[in-house]
Amino acid sequence: MPTLPTAVTADTAAARMAELITEINHHNQLYYQQAAPVVSDREYDDLLRELMDLEDAWPALASPNSPTQRVGGAPIDSFRQIRHLVRMMSLDNTYSPEEVGTFWQRMVRLLGTEDIRTVIEPKVDGVAVSLCYENGRLKYAATRGDGATGDDITENVKTIRRLPLKLPAGAPALLEVRGEIFMPNSAFRQLNDEREAAGDVRFVNPRNATAGTLKQLDPRIAAKRPLNVIFHGLGRIEGRTPGSVSEFHDLLREMGLRNADRVWKASSLGEALAAIQELDIFRRTLDYETDGAVVKVDDYAQQQLLGVTSKAPRWAMAYKFAAERVETLLKSITVQVGRTGVLTPVAELEPVFVSGSTVSRATLHNDEEIQRKDIRVGDTVVIEKAGEIIPAVVEVVLEKRPADSQPFHFLNHIHGRCPSCGGEVVKEEGFVAWRCLGFSCPAQIATRLKHFAGRKMLDLEGVGEIVADKLVERGLVRTPLDLFELEEHTLATLNLGTEEKARVFGAKNAATLLAALERAKAMPLSRWLFAIGIPDVGDSAARELARLHRNFGEIARISDKEEERAVSPALKELRHLAKGKRKEDNPVLAPYQIAQEVGQVAAAETLDFLSQESGQAFLTKLAALGIDPQSDNYNPQPASSGKAKTGGGGRLAGTTWVITGTLSQPRETFADRIRQAGGKVSGSVSAKTSYLLAGDEAGSKLAKAQDLKVPVLDEAGFEALLAGPAESGPPDSAEGGRAEQMDLGL
Ligand code: IVH
Q1: Which domain-ending residue is among 271, 292, 320?
Q2: Total tally of structural domains belonging to the chain
Q3: 711, 718 contact by CB (below 8 A)
Q4: Are 259 and 140 contained in the same domain?
Q5: pLDDT higher for 116 or 1?
């Protein structure tokens, strides 16, 4: 409950609310119209918080135009479609200055004059959006979609903090305005760090993070992500008549709608090319991604004369900057060990400034990649940063290779052992990466610990990257369960810094962590199963396991039974199956419900883990700590009996899904949506799979689904299916669900 003086009456509350709204809107205007904020973000947030508290206490008095409306309303089922008043076109683009010349000459020819004024703006690498204000009030916001119709993303767009929901006096009666929504680079990095700490996959680049956020049906998620918007185009306008792009920019500023951070003007091709060059320098100072310059004719009358082709206007052109590439020295190659023991070679570079930041490391992916590009220590390499925050080594500059250079041999380099623990490394069939098998490998322990503590796992606040590394480095933690034995004093005095420059964890953090550990003891079985980091057991497999078993004991007993029947070799066999090497189902495990419902691979890995020494030690220690997590979703009815909890009458009732590849959101988000719609999510593809939801870089599961003729849907197909009429059975062909595209600029 908000902390309000009890004497506040409805009248005083209403008065204060009105005052706050005026004040917040005033700060928004200062921020955008004059680019001169007079309060810090913190002070701004405090005002917003006070208003939210008042609205909580007096909901009847809350104004629909309150700036708090952007903190995220209730979730929706699907996106309504909105027809754009004016079609959203795209732009012709080029990487060559000559083609800018051709574009200019064509305009001179068509207009019959050399007197052409243009404006040049940064091309924001975001997600296109169209907003409609009616009588100064935001009516809706929509994605580009197919250009004619887009998704209604109003609720998500409203969460953009400084976007006016109401325009000031003098607003046009109707304003359809176009822009790009983006996530600032700094916010993107922070979001990714948080995601990693919580065990979620990182977004590849800010644009994907933005698109993924806008696709969320729950605006509260968008509200937590700091999106922003820059406007650059006009759809329809009534009541005001800007005669040029420049006048339109003035109008945007007057309305408090952010537009380009800098605009150039050019009246000749030479000036335009010079502006593009300047812009290429300027854009590196921006905290958001830009991938080009847009040259557009200033005068709307001239724009009209030039007209449009079927897809793009003849009065504008995008000049795209090639991803920035720079040369630098590859000083050495180090090897990182991930949670599952995967060894990733990393290029240690002579620090070099590229696309707005200094880069000193780049991933080399795996040793096959190194072989393919013949990358050697001592080479001068070309690195590229193309929107993606993680730079890549593109190629070697062979002319600069030292005469005595030696080919790089990954295994020799690591002396055939894990660089972290000295344990055995293997490259499993069908895999490109080497993996360390050492369960007690420090690098693995630290990453497992971070996973264990993630938000969706046991939610142990405080155990992030540094704390986990230090706990392992100082020998305080060897397995995640050791956390439960840490003394408050040990934690409070844990040095997170160096010997010379100590920085302790502190009493407050220690107390918070201990409280979180207490809470974790009572967390349900599914969370624990996910937290312990069994390969292939994600959130959804963990939930299914917990649906079939009451506690670890029950799962372990299956594991024992399997042992009695000497199926361990079969489990190994299953690992190969999992890697798509063999297609037939494993005869030993197949009859078990656990294999059928959790997926053969996840089931095999779980049983494997619990029957091995490390798993046994885990169970013993868990018992010794007095922790016995219980299932909170126990319901072992076979899903096919129709009585299972996951059955129900939702749109996806009776369907079984497998999710693979990189999607715009964590797989678990999709899994949740499938379950909410009555479907079931399984870990491996079989003849019983109704659909495979496949993202980018889908591998063996996609191949298997295609083999078994299981319909494959991409995200758009999935959305279409969820939004469409109740599911009556899989479509006839893999293309069935793909027809409808939800274009979020990806
Ligand atoms: S003007 C008729 N200006 O880039 C389209 N577009 O690749 C006129 N974009 O569709 C667009 N920054 O979504 C314009 N300063 C800018 C832009 C910009 C980004 C987007 C826009 C456009 C796409 C074309």
Answers
A1: 320
A2: 6
A3: no
A4: yes
A5: 116
